[in-house]
């Protein structure tokens, strides 16, 4: 709870560095502006941009907006209860349970706090079928998978390519390979592809096999620590690569002619190789979208998809949460509990 009527506890960065620079301290409760609501935060989702900001990145690549200045409250994903509504908001009322990806792309979400001023357009009603921790784990990872695979939902040009991203139609005749299938984006992508009826090949370490096949319904599993996917599968329609890095281009060899690879993290691809293989490579930058989040929420509510929670930490333990993230091999999402 806030230490006084007008203050709250939050995590702030006063300098860039390792997890130790995350400070738990008392700050003023924000005032929601026009089109915003004040949310009493119950849980926060941890995402890679949080540690990018902590490490010193203050502007999302390709965005023209101003960089953030220190001190800053990190975080974009949260779930909570509307505490106040400013002018210009008609869709939410005090007491509504909501979740959202706030002000992304950008580093002004300020979600690591007991209260946050959130644009109403970035929010959706929290599905009643999931708790606040699960809801807080859904927005960025879920919307990334949704905008890559289902519907882009915006006309903003991509930072990394000239052509707009276009999701591939998914149905029973489609084979999708998800690299990094146990992670945040990966486990949503697997479930969304299955929802559309696709045959899904999940690539992860062997520790996640039962989770991905028995719990999430992957049709085939490849343990990347034992075999390389490009040695085992071919004629895939779509590769969604949530891992990235210099090895991403080797997955092109799994595709059929006319297939596509969607790298969540931009990789180093050779245009001549892409042309020779007769495939395409396309990506996009996830953006806040309350309407899409509401659609995702409906699937969460009825159990069509689920949020896997790797681990939870209290708000005051944000440093430990970032240390957990740095160890990798995350199954689903890491969350901070505020209430």
Automatic annotation (TrEMBL):
Molecular function GO terms recorded: oxidoreductase activity
Stored Gene3D superfamilies: Medium-chain alcohol dehydrogenases, catalytic domain, NAD(P)-binding Rossmann-like Domain
InterPro entries linked: ADH-like_N (IPR013154), ER (IPR020843), GroES-like_sf (IPR011032), Lipid_raft_assoc_Zn_ADH (IPR052585), NAD(P)-bd_dom_sf (IPR036291)
Domain (Enoyl reductase (ER)) ranges: 17-336
Pfam families found in the cross-reference section: ADH_N (PF08240), ADH_zinc_N_2 (PF13602)
SUPFAM superfamilies associated with the record: GroES-like, NAD(P)-binding Rossmann-fold domains
PANTHER family: PROTEIN AST1-RELATED
The protein's name: NADP-dependent oxidoreductase
């Amino acid at each position: 709870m806030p230490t006084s009527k007008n203050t709250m506890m939050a995590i702030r960065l006063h300098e860039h560095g390792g997890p130790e620079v995350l400070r738990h301290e008392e700050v003023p409760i924000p005032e929601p502006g026009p089109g915003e609501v004040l949310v009493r935060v119950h849980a926060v989702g941890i995402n890679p941009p949080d540690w990018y900001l902590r490490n010193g990145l203050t502007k999302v690549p390709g965005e023209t907006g101003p960089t953030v200045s220190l001190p800053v409250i990190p975080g974009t994903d949260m779930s909570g209860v509307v505490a106040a509504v400013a002018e210009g908001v008609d869709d939410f009322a005090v007491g509504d349970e909501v979740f959202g990806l706030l002000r992304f792309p950008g580093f002004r979400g300020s979600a690591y706090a007991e209260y946050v001023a959130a644009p109403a357009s970035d929010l959706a009603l929290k599905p009643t079928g999931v708790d606040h921790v699960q809801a807080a784990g859904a927005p960025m990872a879920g919307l990334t998978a949704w905008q890559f695979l289902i519907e882009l939902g915006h006309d903003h040009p991509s930072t990394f390519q000239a052509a707009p991203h276009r999701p591939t139609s998914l149905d029973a005749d489609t084979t999708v390979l998800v690299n990094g299938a146990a992670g945040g984006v990966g486990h949503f992508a697997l479930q969304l592809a299955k929802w559309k009826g696709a045959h899904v090949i999940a690539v992860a370490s062997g520790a996640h096999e039962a989770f991905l096949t028995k719990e999430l319904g992957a049709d085939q599993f490849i343990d990347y620590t034992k075999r390389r996917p490009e040695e085992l599968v071919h004629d895939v329609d779509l590769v969604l690569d949530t891992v990235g890095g210099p090895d991403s281009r080797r997955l092109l060899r799994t595709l059929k002619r006319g297939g596509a690879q969607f790298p969540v993290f931009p990789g180093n691809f050779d245009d001549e190789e892409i042309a020779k293989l007769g495939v395409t490579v396309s990506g996009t930058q996830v953006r806040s979208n309350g309407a899409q989040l509401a659609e995702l929420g409906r699937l969460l509510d009825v159990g069509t998809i689920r949020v896997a929670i790797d681990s939870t930490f209290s708000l005051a333990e944000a440093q430990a949460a970032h240390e957990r993230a740095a160890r990798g091999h995350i199954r689903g999402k890491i969350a901070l509990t505020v209430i």
